[in-house]
Amino acid sequence: MKTPYEILGAEGVQQLACAFYDAMDELPEVRGIRAMHAQDLTDVKQKLSDYLTGWMGGPSLYQAKQGTVCLTEPHKPYSIGPEETEQWLLCFNKALEKIAASDELKQMLEQPIKRIAAAVQNRQHALASKDDPNIIASC
């Protein structure tokens, strides 16, 4: 069985990373996680591509550049709960669609990508909306 990296190749992984952040820019329902990112997504697209390359069975580019493959530390400053996790997964699934990933690849990645999303999540409950009139103070 081929690895996801062998299926996509370096260019395919790069396209997936770009499609992921393009989805984040385009989908209004993921504005919560888009707000956690800089206006210019160039650097983070490359970081995601580097990470996915190693994670999918290719060269360990992210580790070579960042010194680690830990994703929880860089996400620690952000409040990531169930809504943000679902938004992230939506972007990933839209990116797979955009690059016309095969059903085989989608199935191969479905559970592992959910585990990554769950590992980065750092709170269990949704935050109260600042627009909710029943909220006295928000976090």
From TrEMBL:
Keywords: Heme, Iron, Metal-binding, Transport. The keyword DNA repair does not apply. SUPFAM superfamilies: Globin-like (SSF46458). It comes from the Bacteria. CDD domains: TrHb2_PhHbO-like_O. Pfam families: Bac_globin. The keyword Endoplasmic reticulum does not apply. GO terms for molecular function: heme binding; metal ion binding; oxygen binding; oxygen carrier activity. Belongs to the truncated hemoglobin family. Group II subfamily. This is Globin.
